[in-house]
Amino acid sequence: MDQNRGEVSREVIEENCVHDSSVDQKGRVPLRASTGVWKASRFIIAIEFSERLSYFGIATSLIIYLTKVIHEDLETAAKSVNHWSGVTTLMPLLGGFVADAYLGRFRTVVVSTIIYLMGLILLTLAWFLPGLRACESKLCTEPRKIHEVFFFLATYLISIGTGGHKPALESFGADQFDDDHSEERKQKMTYFNWWNFALCSGLILGVTVIVYVQDHVNWGVSYIVLTVVMAVSLVIFFMGRPFYRYRAATGSPLTPLFKVLVAAIRKRNLPYPSDPSQLYEIPKSEKTIGRFLCHTSKLKFLDKAAILEDNDSPAEKQSPWRLATITKVEELKLILNMIPIWIATLPFGICVAQCTTFFIKQGVTLDRKIANGFEMPPASVYGLAAIGMMVSVTIYEKILVPKLRKATGNERGINILQRIGIGMLFSIVTMVVAALVEKKRLNVVENDPKKSSLSMSIFWLAPQFLIIGFGDGFTLVGLQEYFYDQAPDSMRSLGIAFYLSVIGAANFVSSWLITIVARVTKKGGHGWFGKDLNTSRLDKFYWLLAGITAVNMIFYVFLARRYSYKNVQRVAVADFNGGDDEDVKV
Questions:
Q1: First-to-last CA distance in the chain?
Q2: Where exactly are the transmembrane stretches of this chain (predicted)?
Q3: Nearest to 503 by CA among 529, 469, 470, 480
C-alpha cells in the first residue's frame, strides 16, 4: 500500500511541477499549469516579431540606402552589407555566452533590446537632425562624413543588440517547454515552426509596409515606426513575467569542457577500461542541475578524462582538471560533433546571403509597376521568401509530420539532419533558377540597351525567392532545432548562437568570394562584377554557387549518415519518502 502511494505521489509531482532546473518568478519550482508552454511563449514571440520587423526593414533596403544616399558603388555596397550582416549574425556568439554564463536569458533579452532601441533612435536622429543629415540639398553626390559615422554607429549598435537578443530570446522561449515531459517535448518541436512563422510575419511587414514608407515617405519616418514598435514590444515582454520559467546563469559553460580536454591529455597513456560503466559519473542523488548523458563510442580518446586512477584519493575530491564525469565528456563530444555540420551548412548560408544583396539589386533594374501606377519598392520582393517559408513550415507541420510520424515511428517525423538536407537541395535549385533569370535579363538589356531591363517584370524574381523560402522552412528551422537540441543543457543560448553564426560566417565568406572572383575574372578581361548590374555577369556567379553547394551536398550527406545524436538519461523525480530515482534511456 505504501509503495503504491509512493508511486502515485511521484506521478503527481512529475505532472504538476517542472523539475528541469528552472524556477518561477519568485524562485520556486514552477507549477506546470500556470507557467511555461504557450501561455509564456506568446509574449516571447511578440517581441521576436517586432525585432524581425526592425531587422528586415533595415537589412533588405540597406544596399539601396548605401548606393542612393551614401553613394557607394555596387561592389562596395554589397561588401558593406555582407560585413554588417556577418557581424550581426556572429555577435550572438558573444551574446549567447553572456546569457548562459553571467546574465541569464531574461536579463540578456532586456539589456540587448535597450541597446537595439538606442540604435534605432540614433538612426532616426541621423536622418532628422540638420547637423547629422547626409546632405544639405537633394543634389549632392557625396554625403557628409558625420552622417556616415552616425549611420554606421547606429547600425552596428543594432548588431550588438541583435547579438544578445536573438540567442537569448529564442532559447528562453524554448526553455518554456520541459524536455522530460512527453507532451511538452512535442509542443517544443511545434514551437520552432511557429516561432519562424511569426518571424516571417515580421519580415513580410518589414519588407512591405516599412520599405514602402522608406520609398514613398522617407527613411526617418520608417525609423520612428520601428522605434515605437520595439518599445511597445518590450513592455509586452515584461507583462509575461509571471508566466515565464527562468534558468539561472551557471558560469562559463566553456571551462568544464576545457577541463575535460586537459584531463584526457593528462591521462592519455592510461588503458581504456574493458567496460564503459567503469567510467566515472557522480551519483544520481547528487545531481542537482542538468541531465545525465549516456556514453557513446565515438571520440574515445576523450573518455580517458573519466577514468578513475588507482590512488587513495576519493573521486569526489580529485581535481576537475584531472577527473571528469562521463556527462561532461559527452558534452564536449556534442560540441566537437557540431563543428563539421556547421561547416557543411555554410554554402547554404552563402546562397541565403545573395537574397539581401544581389537579388534585391536586381529588383531595382526591373519593372516594379503593379497596378494603377503603384510601384513596388525593390526590397519588398524579399517578402516572397517569407511567404515561401511560411508555406513550407505549414505544410511540414500540418501535413508531413503527422504522416511521417506514423511511417517512421520518429516523434519528429524525420530526423533533424534530414530536414536540414532537404532545404539545402532547395538552395541549389534557387541558384540555378537565379542564374537563368539573370541571363534572361542580360539578353533583354543587350537587345534593347535604351529601355534596358525595364521591360521585364520584377516578378521574374519570384521563383528564386519562393524556392529559397521553401528551403529556409526546412534548413533554417532545422538548424535552430539542431543547435538548441544538440547543445549541452548549459549552453542552450550558445547553441542558438551557433545557428546564427552559420549565416554570419556565410556572409563573410560570400564577401571574400566576391573579392576573389572579381580579381580572378578581371585578369581574363571583363570581370564578373562591374560598376552596375548591366556590366556584371551575376549569372556566372550564381552558377558557381550552385556548383559549390552541389559538391558540398555530398560532404553533408556523408556527415549526416554517420552522426550520433545526443543520448539523454531521463530520471524520474523521487517521491516525498526519498524513493530512488529511476533511469529511463532514450
A1: 30
A2: 83-103, 110-129, 190-213, 219-239, 334-359, 379-396, 416-437, 457-484, 496-521, 541-560
A3: 480
For 576, list phi and psi in degrees, rounded to 5: -65, -20
Q: CB neighbours of 238 closer than 8 A, spacing ≥ 6?
A: none
Q: In this structure, what are the phi and psi dihedrals at residue 474, rounded to the nearest 5 degrees?
A: -95, -55
CA distance 79 to 512: 9
Q: Work out the angle between the directed axes of helices 105-128 and 74-98 (0-180°, nearest 10).
A: 150
> Which residue from 141, 154, 126, 144 is spatially nearest to 67, judged by alpha carbons?
141
Q: What is the DSSP annotation of 37-91?
A: HHHHHHHHHHHHHHHHHHHHHHHTTHHHHHHHTS---HHHHHHHHHHHHHHHHHH
pTM, rounded to two decimals:
0.78
Q: How does 208-238 read in b/e, with b if 16+ C-beta sit within 10 Å?
A: bbbbbbbbeeebbbbbbbbbebbeebbeebe
Which letter, b or e, does each residue of 484-515 get, where b requires 16 or more Cβ atoms within 10 Å of its Cβ?
A: bbbbbbbbbbbbbbbbbbbbbbbbbbbbebbe
Q: What residues contact residue 553 under an 8 Å CB cut-off, 6+ apart?
A: 421, 424, 425, 428
Cα–Cα distance between 557 and 562 in angstroms, integer?
A: 9
Joined together, the cell numbers standing for residue 134 give 547626409
Question: Strand, helix or coil at 255?
Answer: helix
Q: Which amino acid type is present at position 511?
A: S
What are 228-276's pLDDT values in tens digits? 999 999 999 999 999 998 888 877 888 888 888 998 898 888 888 878 8
pLDDT digits (tens, 9 = 90+) for 152-165: 899 999 999 998 88
Give 481-526 pLDDT, tens digit per residue: 898 888 887 888 888 888 888 887 888 888 889 888 888 888 766 7
Residue 573 is given by DSSP the state P
Q: Distance between CA atoms of 389 and 471, rounded to whole angstroms?
A: 7
Single-letter amino acid, residue 376: M
> What gap in Å lies between CA 532 and CA 289, rounded to an integer?
57
**Is 141 in contact with 91 (CB distance < 8 Å)?**
no
At residue 580, what are phi and psi to the nearest 5 degrees?
A: -75, 150
Name the residue type at position 191.
Answer: Y
Cα torsion through 555, 556, 559, 565, rounded to 10: 170
Candidates 159, 166, 206; CA nearest to 58 is 206
| Secondary structure string (H, E, C) spanning 385-417 | HHHHHHHHHHHHHHHHHHHHHHHHCCCCCCCHH
